[in-house]
């Protein structure tokens, strides 16, 4: 039950962000990798002279390696997923054969399996016979040590930095290639008699090298860079203070002021705006007219401008307290007394949404008190009035009424309606409605800044070719 569930044009609150932008921001924060991980060699497209085991992890070369076109290569069954911070696999050289012309690396979908990885465009390889790295040519460049029978070679992509690296027997060999673009497939190439390799794509037997150490180092570097950015303590306190003020947490705000000395800190930021408040907001709506008329009536009483959030804090805090204490009817009565314009005909859309939201909460309270008969009558007499008041609200009412169908509501699919989190969310809805009628921004400055953070992280990922782990705000806030 959210204030912005109302249809645009119905007089519903607007916070400057449309529904599409809301969904896009949610998608940014909840993005997860759903692509398949490579787990075996693709036996449907292999080079000649290769014999692949039944488990599709061991490959043996059966040719003579007499000519350049006698190479036998094979790609993994899936490309490297793009939403990981790092991708890594290891290959054990079971038998280096005659010359150990083993190539290990990554190739694109157009790669010719009669060539070594690194010889073709958009392919990358590290070769055992000479220790060279190859990309887009057959000459190669000096890179690392040679490898042979018994060695374990790891190949990885640090996606966020677009770098390919290799390891040998657990030792990191450094960056081999930069500015790498996906999609790429893990690939091995064999080119001399009796060569045999065994791959471990998923680390099921335990990788010799732990690729997470690279990710941890990158994250630590980013963390240190962030911590070096100067930020005013006063500005941080003001941001937190504004958040508490915005949501009507009056008691918490007073405690915060007492502990942090916010009243003194606020002087340090006097005349300076935060990033969020620097955004110019223009709201030409009937609610602004409502606010201006109220201001004219109060102009004679004070020559000092007051913060609208501070002015309405008492009312919003009292309404929140009544909702959290299980008295939505008292919350509505208080609104009718202190904010009668909310219930005027010109504000019918928001009025209906507020009343319906509180009515649903009253029904939930009756169900929690096991007053089933009263709840049924309440639904028939009251809730029925609020059907189809806005897009999707009928479904929310159906969810609330679904509580009647379960003997044990706490274990039902709608058990979340009984939680403190839901009650707090209802209080947030009413708080936003009050702010909207006052012509104030319905999203706090802190939330605006967090949304900006999500957008910046999304743009950074786009610059990196949409590669790397998707930024998750919940994990970032928890310090994971």
Main sheet strand line-up? 1-4-13-6-7-8-9
In angstroms, what separates the terminal alpha carbons? 31 Å
Low-pLDDT segments:
1-25, 27-33, 265-304
Structural category is: alpha+beta
Structure characterization notes:
The protein is an alpha+beta fold. Helix content is about 40%, strand content about 15%. The protein contains 15 helices and 14 strands. The strands form 2 sheets. A 7-stranded antiparallel β-sheet has the order 1-4-13-6-7-8-9, with no helix packed on it. A hairpin with a 4-residue loop joins β7 and β8. α9 packs antiparallel against α10. The longest helix has 21 residues. The protein is elongated and about 95 Å long. The N terminus is likely disordered.
For this entry, give a set of tags.
480 residues; alpha+beta; seven-stranded antiparallel sheet; 15 helices; 14 strands; 38% helix; disordered N terminus
């Amino acid at each position: 039950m959210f204030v912005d569930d109302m249809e645009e044009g119905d007089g519903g609150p607007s916070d400057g962000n449309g529904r599409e932008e809301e969904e896009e921001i949610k998608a940014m924060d909840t993005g997860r990798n759903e692509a398949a991980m490579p787990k075996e060699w693709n036996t449907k497209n292999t080079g000649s002279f290769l014999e692949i085991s039944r488990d599709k992890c061991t490959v043996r070369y059966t040719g003579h390696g007499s000519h350049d076109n006698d190479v036998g290569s094979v790609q993994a069954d899936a490309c490297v997923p793009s939403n990981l911070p790092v991708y890594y696999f290891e290959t054990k050289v079971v038998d280096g054969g005659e010359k150990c012309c083993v190539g290990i690396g990554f190739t694109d979908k157009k790669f010719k399996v009669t060539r070594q990885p690194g010889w073709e465009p958009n392919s990358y390889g590290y070769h055992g016979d000479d220790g060279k790295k190859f990309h887009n040519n057959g000459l190669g460049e000096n890179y690392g040590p040679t490898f042979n029978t018994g060695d374990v070679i790891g190949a990885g992509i640090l996606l966020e930095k677009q770098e390919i690296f290799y390891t040998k027997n657990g030792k990191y060999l450094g960056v081999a290639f930069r500015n790498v673009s996906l999609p790429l497939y893990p690939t091995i190439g064999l080119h001399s008699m009796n060569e045999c390799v065994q791959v471990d794509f998923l680390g099921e037997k335990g990788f010799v090298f732990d690729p997470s150490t690279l990710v941890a180092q990158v994250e630590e570097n980013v963390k240190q860079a962030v911590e070096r950015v100067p930020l005013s303590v006063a500005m941080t306190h003001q941001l937190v203070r504004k958040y508490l003020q915005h949501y009507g947490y009056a008691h918490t705000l007073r405690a915060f002021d007492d502990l942090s000395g916010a009243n003194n800190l606020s002087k340090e930021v006097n005349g300076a705006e935060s990033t969020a408040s620097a955004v110019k907001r223009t709201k030409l709506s009937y609610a602004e007219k409502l606010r201006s008329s109220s201001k004219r009536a109060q102009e004679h009483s004070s020559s000092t401008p007051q913060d609208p959030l501070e002015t309405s804090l008492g009312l919003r805090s009292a309404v929140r307290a009544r909702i959290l204490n299980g008295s939505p009817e008292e919350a509505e009565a208080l609104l009718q007394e202190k904010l009668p314009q909310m219930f005027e005909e010109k504000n019918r859309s928001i009025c209906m949404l507020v009343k319906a939201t509180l009515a649903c909460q009253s029904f939930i309270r009756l169900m929690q008190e096991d007053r089933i008969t009263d709840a049924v009558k309440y639904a028939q007499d009251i809730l029925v009035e609020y059907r189809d008041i806005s897009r999707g609200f009928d479904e929310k009412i159906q969810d609330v009424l679904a509580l009647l169908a379960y003997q044990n509501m706490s274990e039902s699919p709608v058990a979340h309606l009984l939680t403190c989190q839901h009650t707090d969310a209802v209080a947030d809805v009413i708080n936003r409605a009050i702010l909207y009628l006052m012509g104030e921004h319905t999203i706090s400055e802190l939330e605006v800044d967090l949304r900006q953070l999500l957008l910046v992280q999304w743009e950074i990922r786009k610059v990196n070719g949409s590669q790397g782990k998707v930024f998750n705000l919940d994990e970032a806030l928890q310090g994971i």
